[in-house]
Specification:
Layout: H1 8-47, H2 53-58, E1 66-73, E2 79-86, E3 89-100, E4 105-115, E5 132-139, E6 159-161, H3 166-173, E7 177-184, H4 202-236
Parallel strand pairs: 2-6, 4-7
Antiparallel strand pairs: 1-3, 1-5, 2-3, 3-4, 5-7
Helix pairs in contact: 1-4
């Protein structure tokens, strides 16, 4: 192959990096498809008619299922989920027990986001004390949460947390409750409730895939260019050997 001389070291580099770059691009395409399917499923469930709490409890897959509630909040016990950022501002999400009268079960309702006025003082909020008819949807995390170091915990109630664990709360309070967090839809008891479904959109994954494939194409193009260039220089080198 006198017309192509890439050299040993460049060949080894390409053999090592090219499959890696192509694999990363394919992985990002797969992630984009997974996120698109997740968003489609979420949209379909968020448009469906809400179920009762009893119907929700019988389902195997709870994620994004809407549910109708009627009952009262427990204003004495609240959780503040820390390290929630909205628009560059630090805040918390407010979670409170809610007793559903029809099912006789306690539910942990996420009422939404509030800003931190001061890290030394917990955000203040009002709890409705009358019977409410609400609509919420079941939130099921996609994986293990990334926990940040928190400041000194707030004493008493409300309690500052970095991870939502409904069953631990029910055990502590001695109550029968559902084991998933429910997030309120906009309404009289809700704060800021515009939660993103996924942290990264399918379009971002596609953008990353294009970048990885572009790097692979650049690497391959440089490999071919220098291989041909080296071959031409070799052909044009003057011979120093004498008869």
């Amino acid at each position: 192959m006198n017309g192509f001389r890439p050299g040993l070291l460049p060949s080894l580099v390409v053999l090592a990096l090219l499959p890696l770059l192509l694999g990363l691009g394919a992985w990002q395409l797969s992630r984009a498809e997974d996120k698109r399917a997740l968003l489609d499923a979420q949209q379909a469930r968020r448009l469906a008619a809400p179920l009762s709490v009893d119907q929700l409890a019988q389902r195997q897959d709870w994620a994004y299922t809407r549910v109708s509630l009627r009952g009262r909040f427990d204003g004495e016990h609240a959780l503040l989920l820390d390290n929630r950022i909205r628009g560059g501002q630090a805040g918390v999400e407010v979670l409170q027990p809610f007793y559903d009268q029809a099912s006789g079960l306690w539910l942990l309702l996420n009422r939404g986001w509030l800003p931190w006025p001061d890290r030394r003082v917990a955000p203040t909020f009002a709890t409705p004390d009358d019977t409410l008819s609400l609509t919420a949807w079941a939130y099921v995390p996609l994986g293990e949460p990334f926990l940040l170091q928190q400041d000194a915990p707030v004493q008493g109630w409300p309690k500052l947390i970095t991870q939502v664990e409904p069953q631990a709360l029910w055990q502590r309070l001695g109550r029968a409750g559902l084991g998933h967090e429910l997030r309120l839809e906009p309404g009289p008891a809700a704060f800021e409730v515009d939660w993103p479904v996924v942290a990264m959109s399918p379009d971002k994954h596609l953008g990353y895939a294009v970048q990885w494939f572009a790097l692979a194409a650049t690497l391959l193009g440089l490999f071919i260019y220098f291989g041909l260039h080296n071959a031409r220089e070799t052909r044009h080198e003057p011979s120093h050997r004498h008869a």
